[in-house]
Specification:
Layout (H helix, E strand, L loop, with lengths): L1 E8 L6 H6 L1 H6 L3 H5 E6 L12 E9 L2 E10 L2 H5 L12 E6 L9 H27 L4 E6 L2 H4 L6 H8 L10 E6 L4 H50 L6 H26 L2 H18 L3 E5 L11 H45 L1 H19 L3 H15 L1
Length: 391
């Protein structure tokens, strides 16, 4: 059975150890996830018991009764990273989840937020990731998880600019990273970073598998095309046909067609794709709910990237729209007052001098029709003039 390792970073104040400890019960009591998947926790293989410095919680992922993956959630020790202690397992993880205490963002002073992030998080995370790249040659998938959404939902504007400034090496287009604001009281929200991790693992495996199939399909199609071409050339001949080789080529084309059909079927229907799609559906289900806020990175799934610039632009557009609505209401009010004054003047003229009123009505009707291209007012004015002269 294959194995997959997820590294978890963060100081004690981030409650990362509690989240890891609570993961087993969350996975097995999470609604639609537990309808398709199950997770069995086992402690028979535990790095801490084996004398390693890393506390690792290990799970067997079950998909429709089939055990498909052993995945480990490794609670990476800050002391080991700070002191640069050599550990064979410290950098042997496929992706990183960084837990950040939401209370860091509960102040209005942007400089104070950055100081806290630098003091409590930046040294550990940046040091770990730089050494990870040095040892592995690439940047891992990195997920920032900010808890206590109930405390900081109104302060979301503070989050992205602070993180992107402190962790500028992560927040760029070359590294796949996400930032999630989770509600500590909702199970599915707490699971999202792990579901994203597992999704990318199976998505990468499926893409590799698909490329291998496409390579095989290309080779088979090339061989089939060569045989088809040979058969076509042989059948054009009136004499000197090689009937034995022609029959062998036709049989080979039949066999190749069957193999191609099987590969195409494997490409469309395979276990890796099913697992990936089930994880994707559950992940989208969480995103569509009100159990989490997606702050950064989710454009990869078709979700708008709610970066600081986007939120600022959204605020400015909202303010502009409010001003425009206010100005529009004021304009309508002033226009109504103007029309009432005109109506009063015309009414007075109509009472005092029908002829002057008729001339004014004709001029107003002509102007209205040419500017507004509307015949209703001219008809109304004509009816009023006729009634005035009749009366």
């Amino acid at each position: 059975m294959e194995s997959y390792r997820i590294g978890v970073l963060g100081p004690k104040s981030s409650n990362k150890s509690e989240y890891v400890e609570d993961l087993a019960s969350c996975l097995n009591y999470s609604g639609s996830f537990s309808d398709v998947f199950e997770c069995e926790r086992f402690d028979s293989i535990n790095e801490k018991k084996m004398g390693s410095e890393i506390d690792s919680s290990e799970f067997i992922l079950v998909h429709f009764y089939d055990e498909i993956l052993i995945f480990s959630v490794c609670d990476l020790s800050n002391e080991i990273i700070k002191n640069r202690v050599e550990s064979t397992q410290l950098y042997n993880v496929q992706n990183i989840i960084v837990y950040i205490d939401g209370e860091v963002f509960c102040v209005d002073d942007h400089n104070e937020i950055q100081k806290k992030l630098k003091r409590e998080y930046a040294r550990i995370v940046n040091q770990y990731l730089s050494e990870y790249v040095e040892k592995n040659g690439y940047n891992p998938l990195t997920i920032f998880v900010i808890d206590k959404a109930d405390l900081i939902e109104e302060r979301m504007d503070n989050i992205y600019p602070a993180l992107s400034n402190i962790f500028s090496n992560i927040f760029n287009d070359d590294i796949c990273s996400f930032t999630i604001l989770v509600d500590r009281f909702h199970t599915d929200a707490k699971l999202l970073p792990y579901i994203i991790s597992l999704y990318f693992y199976y998505n990468d495996r499926y893409e590799i598998y698909k490329k291998e199939l496409e390579k095989q399909l290309e080779e088979l199609n090339n061989r089939k095309n060569e045989k088809d071409q040979y058969i076509a050339e042989q059948e054009k001949r009136l004499i000197f046909k090689n009937y034995i080789k022609l029959r062998e080529s036709k049989n080979e084309v039949t066999s190749l067609s069957i193999e191609i059909e099987k590969l195409n079927d494997r490409k469309k229907n395979n276990e890796l794709m099913d697992i990936r799609n089930d994880l994707y559906e559950y992940m989208i289900d969480i995103m569509n709910g009100n159990r989490t806020s997606l702050i950064h990175g989710f454009q990869v799934f078709g979700y708008k990237d709610a970066k600081w610039e986007d939120k600022l632009k959204e605020k400015q557009e909202h303010q502009i729209n409010e001003r425009q609505e206010s100005a529009s209401k004021h304009s309508i009010y002033m226009l109504l007052v103007f029309y009432l004054i005109i109506a009063a003047i015309l009414g007075l003229i109509c009472y005092l001098s029908p002829i002057i009123f008729a001339v004014a009505a004709i001029l107003l009707s002509i102007y209205w029709y040419r500017v507004k291209e509307n015949i209703i007012l001219p008809i109304i004015m004509a009816v009023i003039v006729v009634l005035r002269f009749v009366i």
